[in-house]
Here is the input.
Amino acid sequence: MTGDKPLLTHEEVMDRARRFHDLVARERELQEFLLKLKFRGRVEQVLEQKRLHDEALAEIDRIRFQEIVPIVAELNAFLKAIETQNGHSKK
Here is the structure.
């Protein structure tokens, strides 16, 4: 933190929390989709199901590592800065 200005405003923290919630909900939707996939039928159908499966897994990975992890890291840094500012640093 620099001076008295926090790293994030209350509105920004709430925005990150809403975004996190939305991303987790989207991940849950994708996981439910994966649970319902059936790999049966003609070869073309199975190949299409495999493609959908692979796309859903890739989207889950993207959500986790490119979106959720940065939000968690940013909020963690914010909380550590608040602790440090208030003299409650934990080691």
Observations:
- Helices lie at 10-36, 43-85.
- The mean pLDDT is 91.
- The chain is about 75% helix and 0% strand.
- The radius of gyration is 20 Å.
